[in-house]
Design a protein that fits this description.
Layout (H helix, E strand, L loop, with lengths): L2 H5 L12 E9 L3 E9 L5 E9 L2 E6 L5 E9 L4 E5 L2 E3 L8 H13 L1 E13 L8 E12 L13 E6 H9 L6 H16 L16 H5 L4
Parallel strand pairs: 4-9
Antiparallel strand pairs: 1-2, 2-3, 4-7, 5-6, 5-10, 8-9
Helix pairs in contact: 3-4
Length: 220
Amino acid sequence: MSGRAAADGPDAPGGHEFAVRGTRTVYDGAIVTLRVDDVQMPGGRVAEREVVEHYGAVAVVARDEQGRIAMVRQYRHPIGRRLLELPAGLLDAGPDETPLEAAQRELAEEVDLAADRWQVLVDLALSPGFTDEALRLYLAEGVRVVDTAERHDEEADMAVEWVALDDAVDRVLAGEIVNATSVAGILAVAAAEARGATLRAVTAPWPDEPTALRERRPTR
């Protein structure tokens, strides 16, 4: 076999198939499941890889006619403080709700808004080293106020803030906005505006949309 053929073979970097030889669930919680996969590594070794399955989520950059962004200040228990964030929520309402419909629902539930124009802003794989959690961010424009939603638990304490885009970028760079989804959404809007970029339609494919947990538990 020539050196060129060997370099292009299945053992070359980028050519290995990481087959799953076995799998087991070790924890099944309210919004995540932890499974352990036995994965075939290059060279023949089988290694354990922990995977946190997640429903997946959506988030919305909703801008008014002045270009301001609707944000919420919400308590986040794992870090013990309130964060300034974009409206967002889980894809946990069942198999009949699309990501766009989930985003529209979350916008109404969290900030009492609807929007006439929707586009895909950016897709995120939030921490692919250990979880399948992924999120689709939408840009929503032509916003209007709808009836006040009933809110519970942490959401009952949320405060809505309208933030100018330049101010939001400054807060990201100053470390005042640290939620990863919000950072990505704010900087993506700023970059798209500066470049005059054409955003994707809401029907654009989402290859990394999580499905494992939703298929196991189709309703919350």
